[in-house]
Amino acid sequence: MEIIINGKSSAGAFKNINDLLSREDLDPKLVVVELNGKILPKEDYDKPLRDGDAVEIVQFVAGG
Amino acid sequence: MTASQILNFYGKAMEDPLIIGGEQLSSRLFIGTGKLGDDALIPRIAEASGAQVITVAMRRVEKGQKGIMSHIPAGMRILPNTSGARNAEEAVRLARIARAAGCGDWIKIEVISDARHLLPDGYETARATETLAKEGFVVLPYINPDLYVARACVAAGAAAVMPLGAPIGTNRGLRTKEMIAILIDEIDLPIIVDAGLGAPSHACEAMEMGASACLVNTAISSADNPPLMGRAFGEAVKAGRGAFLAGLGAVRGRAEGAVASSPLTGFLR
Hints:
Distance between the termini of chain A: 39 Å
Mean pLDDT of chain B: 93
CATH superfamily of chain A: Beta-grasp domain
Number of helices of chain A: 1
Radius of gyration of chain B: 20 Å
Shape of chain A: globular
Structural class of chain A: mainly beta
Largest sheet of chain A: 5 strands, mixed
Strand content of chain B: 15-25%
Mean pLDDT of chain A: 90
Oligomer: heterodimer
C-alpha cells in the first residue's frame, strides 16, 4: 500500500496510526494526526489505514 | 509579595491580576520558546522571568524529532500560535490541531503572508478570530496596532489583542508607540504588546503607558544569558506596571522652566 505522510508518498504495510507512529519513533501523546484533512481522535489510532490515505503528523515546536 | 501584588496608596499590598479568558494571571510577562540555542534553558527562563504564559508553534514532525513540550514546566499556560498560516482558513486549521493536542483552548492568531517584513494580515486575522471565538477558543490575535483592526478583533470575540511594537525579531523597541497608546485608550480588552521589544526598558515603557502585558521572545533568546534576561524583563514589566498604576507625574516643557524639589527660600533661611 501507499500512503502520503506529511506530503510525501510512502510505500509500506502500515497497519494503523499507532503502527506508523511507533515506526517513526513518535509518542502518540505528543502529536496530533490529521487523516485526509480531518483531525483524528486518539481512540481511532488503531483503525486500519487504507491505500491512498493522507496523514499529517503535527507537534508543538519552539516558537514565539 | 506574590508576582501580581502592588501597593495601594497607604503602602498595603494588593492583588493586581491580569484576567484573560476567565483565567487570573499573576505575571504580565509572556515568553516565547523560539530561537534558543538550547531548549533545556526554557524552564530556567520561565522560572527566572516569573512568566506563566508561554508560546509554542506547530509544525509537521520529522522522523524522531522531539517536540518542545518536554521542556515546558508543568502548570504553565500554553499559548500555541498559528505561525505559518497565510490566511484565516490555515490559521483555523492550525488552531484546531493545537486544541486537539490537549493543551487547552488558548490560541495566538498569527496570519502572515509578507515574507520580508512579517507583518500580520489584519483582515485574515479578524476572520480567523471570529471563527475560533465561536468555537470557544480564547483568541489572542497578533495585529498591527491599527484601531480598526483591533475593533474588528473585539467584535469578532477576541480575549485580548496583541499589537506589535516593531516587526518580529528586530529588537527595535516600541516603534509603534503612538498607535499602541491609541489602542490602550480605545480598546476595552487587555493590550499585550508583542514583537519587537528588544530591551527591558522597552517592555517597561509599554507597561508605563498602560499596556496589560508584554510578550517577549527574541530579546530573551538572543541574549548571552537568557535566564538573566528573562528575569530582567520580568522585573521591567513589574516596574512599568507599578508606575502606570501609581500615575506618572506631569512632564514640563523646556519653555516652562524647572521646578525645584527643595524649598527655594534661600540659604539656611
